[in-house]
Amino acid sequence: MWDYDELVFFVNGKKVVEPQADPETTLLQYLREKLHLPGTKLSCGEGGCGACTVMVSKCDYSQNKITHYTINACLASVCSVHGLAVTTVEGIGSTRTRLHPVQERIAKSHGTQCGFCTPGMVMSMYTLLRNNPQPDMADIESAIGGNLCRCTGYRPILAGYRTFTQKVCGRGADCCRNTHTRGEIGNTENVSSELFKMEDFVPYDPSQEPIFPPELQLSSALSTKSVRFKGDRVMWIRPVTLDELLDLKSRYPEAKLVVGDTTMGSKEVKSLKIEHPLLISCTHVPELISVEHSDTGITFGSSSTIAIVEGVLQEAVNSMPEYKTRVFTTILKMFESFAGHQVRNVAVSDMKSVL
Q1: Which among 251, 260, 243, 241 is positioned nearest to 2, based on CA atoms?
Q2: pLDDT tens digits, residue range 278-312?
Q3: What is the pTM of this model?
Q4: How far is CA 27 from CA 11, 22, 52, 73, 97, in A?
Q5: CA–CA dist 49, 147 (Å, integer)
Q6: Which residues pair with 236 in a beta bridge?
Q7: Fewer CB within 10 Å: N-end or C-end of the chain?
């Protein structure tokens, strides 16, 4: 008889220990129903709208480097965040304490109307700033590409977040947004030509962001140990060696191998009502997440996420002759239209079999 493990992770800097983790419980359900953090929203439930976006942080112990990335909490099993740190919109600021600059600027630039998409939009932008404190507009547009807003048309959202960049309109006061004739808008008395005033914003200071949980940074124990979680109908196993994975698959050939498992929210998959009583997570097997460069090309482990593949291919495009990277460039173009960052950060692609 197997012994089952406690689920351990951090949410907004606080340690969470769940003795009876159910693999069928999504991270979104756990945040809202167990931890009573309702800022993360449930909308489409399929990873298409971004309302459930949260930031996940982890430590790369080989490089002693902290990485931050967004995920759709509606698609992630709560078991998948074992040993990780999760940040929700409540964890970066609130009206009870103080607003984070990302929250303040989307509000003061009128980037929110019904407000349902706003927490997810905020978390996508917040994660971008944690990785790149001085983004350009291309970075911002890409970061919120997985977030849908049905009210604002995105213009005020982009206008507010443009203030995090170093670029402003080259025409200054003569910018078309600030100039008009009376005939165009009628009486201009008491009409403001500015969406907001920059001096009203609190400056963004990256050094004031919360630190990564020291308990996770100082010890890799939670990431290097195999874990098993058992719910009422499903068991989740995360092996950490290739031999262990092969042994499990040999003993349980019907077990489903998962990485991001982003199909769990798909209506098509749900309609099939296929049950998988055993899920084997392949995210921590070194051979499956490795990237190897050789004279003949680049070899990716089968559990390498799309985001990892994107990063490696982009580095190759930037450093190698153009004639050697034409296929890479085409693949990168294709990935741009493949879901949002929230999905690409955890999902794998069949394209790696071609590479």
Answers
A1: 251
A2: 999 999 999 999 999 998 889 999 999 999 999 99
A3: 0.89
A4: 11, 10, 10, 5, 25
A5: 5
A6: 229, 279
A7: N
